[in-house]
Design brief:
It is built from seven helices and six strands. With about 170 residues, the chain is α/β, with parallel strands linked by helices. Strands 2-1-3-4-5-6 form a six-stranded parallel β-sheet, with helices on both faces. Helix 1 packs across helix 7, helix 2 packs across helix 3 and helix 3 packs across helix 5. The two termini are about 15 Å apart. About 40% of the residues are buried.
């Protein structure tokens, strides 16, 4: 199985994603973590998802672990480029941006892809309560609430435990 790690918008999130995908045990998964073309000397506040979605779609990954911006990359790759991972884990889904651009990406994703959503109670990019109301319909969707409001999701051992538990239960 091919696992794709999609970090957040900031280059500093790559190290966290590498640690997470390297720590989680999902059977015989072999992973890689995507670096983004817009990363550079200056921070890009609202990067274009499209170029990164094309790269993700070409990966042929069977499973995705994505954080924040990476969740948008995954949904866009599926919606526009036929990317069809068998399962996804979305950490810190940026609900505020999705609401601004339309929730159709999220709705379409939830209709077809088993996904674990991990969201902080009061994440400033979208709180757990608001997200769970939007995605809780399909039986193949699970939501896990973690404490916090900073959108950092720094508890890697806690994330690994939640991901492995869901993965095992869904197998």
């Amino acid at each position: 199985m091919k696992l794709l790690g999609l970090p957040g918008r900031k280059a500093s999130t790559l190290a966290q994603m590498v640690e997470l995908t390297g720590s989680v045990r999902l059977g015989q998964a072999q992973g890689r973590d995507q670096e983004y073309g817009f990363w550079g000397a200056e921070e890009v506040a609202d990067p274009d998802v499209e170029p990164e979605a094309l790269i993700a779609a070409a990966s042929g990954a069977d499973a995705v672990i994505a954080k924040s911006f990476g969740t948008l990359v995954t949904m866009t790759a599926a919606s526009r480029h036929g990317f069809r991972p068998a399962r996804c884990v979305f950490i810190g889904t940026p609900l505020v941006r999705l609401e601004g651009e339309g929730l159709d990406l999220l709705e379409a994703h939830c209709a077809r892809t088993p996904t674990l959503f991990i969201q902080q109670t009061a994440d400033f990019n979208g709180a757990f309560g608001a997200l769970s109301k939007l995605v809780s319909g399909p039986k193949h969707i699970a939501c896990v609430e973690v404490p916090g409001e900073d959108h950092l999701y720094a508890d890697t051992p806690g994330l690994v435990a939640a991901i492995e538990a869901w993965w095992s239960a869904a197998a």
